Amino acid sequence: MSPWEVLLARLTRAVPGVGAVVLVGALYAMVGIVFAWPTGHARAWRLAAWIVSIAAYAGHVGYERLRLRSSAFTGALRVALAVALGAFGLAVGAIAHSISAGTSSDHRRLLLAALAVWPAMTGLPAFLVTWIAGRLLARSSAADTR
């Protein structure tokens, strides 16, 4: 077992939900990179990437709510962290592509900024949407039990 696997195993036991954050974040990054490879039917591949990402998002929200029974805030935080991790991975992939494609240094400098900008640009809206939805779901389920 590699040191990274040991660290992840310890974190997963110590903090519930960390494994899902890493797994879903890696899935987002892989979908963003792999679904961009095909050059034919780009619109269809982009749509497929959106569908897979929406399914991953919904699955993660459901896991947080139903399996871990997370509060709206905690669940939204973990979902947003997964989204931000996926965006970070996508930025790393874009940098690797720019190096292999031989783009200009100005372009690479912009992509270095993407390492911080893309996770913030995607993580914050994901947090807000998930937190508001979690609050509404909690309110409606509390009303159902009365």
Structural summary, described in words:
There is one protein chain. By secondary structure, the chain is mainly alpha-helical. The chain is built from five helices and no strands. Helix 2 runs antiparallel to helix 3 and helix 3 packs antiparallel against helix 4 (72-101). It is globular and about 60 Å long. The model has no long low-confidence stretch (mean pLDDT 90).
The overall strand count is 0
Secondary-structure-based class equals mainly alpha
Share of helix among residues?
over 70%
Largest sheet: none
The global form is globular
* Total number of distinct structural domains: 1
List keywords for this structure.
146 residues, mainly alpha
Strand and helix layout:
Elements: H1 3-14, H2 18-34, H3 42-67, H4 72-101, H5 105-145
Helix pairs in contact: 2-3, 2-4, 3-4, 4-5
How would you concisely characterize the structure shown here?
The protein is an all-alpha fold and 146 residues long.
